[in-house]
From TrEMBL:
<dbReference type="InterPro" id="IPR036812">
    <property type="entry name" value="NAD(P)_OxRdtase_dom_sf"/>
</dbReference>
<keyword id="KW-0521">NADP</keyword>
<dbReference type="InterPro" id="IPR023210">
    <property type="entry name" value="NADP_OxRdtase_dom"/>
</dbReference>
<feature type="domain" description="NADP-dependent oxidoreductase">
    <location>
        <begin position="29"/>
        <end position="258"/>
    </location>
</feature>
<comment type="similarity">
    <text>Belongs to the aldo/keto reductase family.</text>
</comment>
<dbReference type="InterPro" id="IPR018170">
    <property type="entry name" value="Aldo/ket_reductase_CS"/>
</dbReference>
<protein>
    <submittedName>
        <fullName>Aldo/keto reductase</fullName>
    </submittedName>
</protein>
<keyword id="KW-0560">Oxidoreductase</keyword>
<dbReference type="Pfam" id="PF00248">
    <property type="entry name" value="Aldo_ket_red"/>
</dbReference>
<dbReference type="InterPro" id="IPR020471">
    <property type="entry name" value="AKR"/>
</dbReference>
Length: 283
């Protein structure tokens, strides 16, 4: 496992395990236990995933020292204000059964996220959050945010995969020392990623699958990946990407797959933003 160093000196694993769309507490707890047993040390959840307690139960049972784990969760839109964020941070800590979080992200650039960031900065200075960052901030939004806050975000978690490279956002991240983290590194199966001829052919030359090639491509670009699965054999496959490297020519062939658009969600859609505001995760 390789690590990347965040802009505040904290080391973060380049590969982690995500639990998006694993709401069943028993299944989620077992999946996290299996992931940690496989070797994953970065676990990514969110208040909106409604499974923080299950993740916390797995952390308590896994037998791995807390300091060896890197736990991420996220602030939901409903709590995007100074006062609400202060409460949400503590709620997530309580749900996870932890004294501190390794990374806490603003989940969406919606609502009073500047006010929420001030609460996050306070918790960061207090040591309850080792690093703070954002998620789903596009290039323009991220640039404006970095120019408006005191503590620069350590991470921007956005959709990145061989068919959507986020070139503009990646450039802004590099300019401000923000580490890119890829949600949906398999494009959620869109664009035929698992059977793509280019990825399949490159994988065959290394004895790897198209999925493993997709993960390796991101890793070699310095992008943290958090693939999700509830199947232990897939977890093991996804983690088995550290014994090969893509050549510059292979990286260029994958670069050519970029469509410049998401195949999953349109963050510029008014209907999508309205849905985010209407999605309440607590009373």
């Amino acid at each position: 496992m390789d690590y990347v160093t965040l802009n505040n000196g904290v080391k973060m694993p380049l590969e982690g395990f995500g639990v998006f769309q694993v709401p069943d507490p028993i299944q989620c707890e077992q999946a996290v236990l299996d992931a940690i047993a496989t070797g994953y040390r970065l676990i990514d959840t969110a208040a909106a995933y409604m499974n923080e307690k299950a993740v916390g139960a797995a952390i308590a049972k896994c037998g791995v020292p807390r300091e060896e784990l890197f736990i991420t969760t996220k602030l939901w839109v409903q709590d995007a204000s100074y006062e609400a964020a202060k409460k949400a941070i503590q709620t997530s800590l309580d749900n996870l059964g932890l004294d501190y979080l390794d990374l806490y992200l603003i989940h969406q650039p919606v609502g009073d996220y500047i006010g929420a960031w001030r609460a996050m900065e306070e918790a960061y200075r207090e040591g309850r959050l080792r690093a703070i960052g954002v998620s789903n901030f596009n290039a323009a939004r991220l640039l404006d945010f970095c120019e408006s806050v005191t503590v620069k975000p350590a991470v921007d978690q956005v959709e990145i995969h061989p068919f959507f490279h986020q070139k503009e956002a990646m450039k802004v991240m590099a300019d401000y020392g923000v580490i890119p983290e890829a949600w949906g590194p398999f494009a959620e199966g869109q664009f035929g990623l698992f059977t793509n001829p280019v990825l399949t052919e490159i994988g065959r030359s290394h004895g790897k699958t198209a999925a493993q090639v997709a993960l390796r491509w991101n890793i070699q670009r310095g992008v943290v990946v958090i693939p999700k699965t509830v199947h232990k054999n897939r977890m093991e496959q996804n983690f088995d990407i550290w014994d090969f490297a893509l050549t510059p020519e292979e990286m260029e062939r994958i670069d050519a797959l970029d469509t410049g658009r998401s195949g999953i969600v349109d963050h510029n859609s008014p209907a999508f933003i309205r849905m985010l505001h209407n999605l309440k995760i607590h009373e």
